[in-house]
Specification:
It contains 3 helices and 8 strands; from the N terminus they run ββββαββββαα. The chain is of the alpha+beta class. Strands 1, 2, 3, 4, 5, 6, 7 and 8 form an 8-stranded mixed sheet that branches. The longest helix has 24 residues. The radius of gyration is 17 Å and the shape is globular. The mean pLDDT is 93.
Length: 165
């Protein structure tokens, strides 16, 4: 059987040491903003668009991708992780649909979630999780790991920004 694969982008947004996760009704788990990469988008652009649609927040990627002198090209923000997720699996154990997910970390300046998209989860579906909340939660292990990494990366980026101001 053929496996259908789609590119997706996920952004773990951090504000004051906490990440925003929402309960995804169809999946039954808590997840950060994210979704499919449209035909005319780059993965990081899709991730930032999804953050805006799902939360109403403007995010700044926490990116350590070094610049490269490339006259005919440009450097794209490097995802912190790339993951392959099975979305549905056939009875014979083969994956029918998979997501190739580009995982990014970003900072936002507010916790005021106000979804901007038409079919997004309500603001009350979202919660902010700090390190303790994450470690004590029943959130999926990969989401906990990425959330903790995002918090750490955002804190490092804030310290660097303070030194350069």
């Amino acid at each position: 059987m053929e496996t259908t694969r789609h590119f997706t982008a996920t952004v773990y947004i951090v504000e004051s040491g906490a990440v925003a996760l929402h309960h995804h009704d169809r999946l039954g788990i808590r997840v950060p903003p994210g979704g499919h990469v449209d035909r005319d988008e780059l993965p990081h652009e899709a991730g930032l668009r999804e953050v805006k649609e799902e939360t109403g927040l403007d995010a700044d990627l926490v990116d350590g991708t070094p610049a490269i002198d490339a006259p005919a090209g440009r450097v794209l923000p490097r995802p912190r992780h790339q993951m392959l997720y099975d979305i549905n699996v056939h009875d014979d154990g083969t994956a029918g649909h998979q997501h190739i997910d580009h995982v990014y970390y970003a900072r936002v300046e507010s916790r005021g979630i106000d979804p901007a998209g038409d079919d997004e989860a309500d603001a009350d579906a979202w919660a902010w999780y700090d390190e303790r909340d994450l470690r004590e939660s029943d959130v999926d292990p990969d989401t906990v790991q990425f959330s903790l990494e995002a918090i750490e990366a955002a804190e490092r980026a804030a310290k660097v920004a303070e030194r350069t101001d």
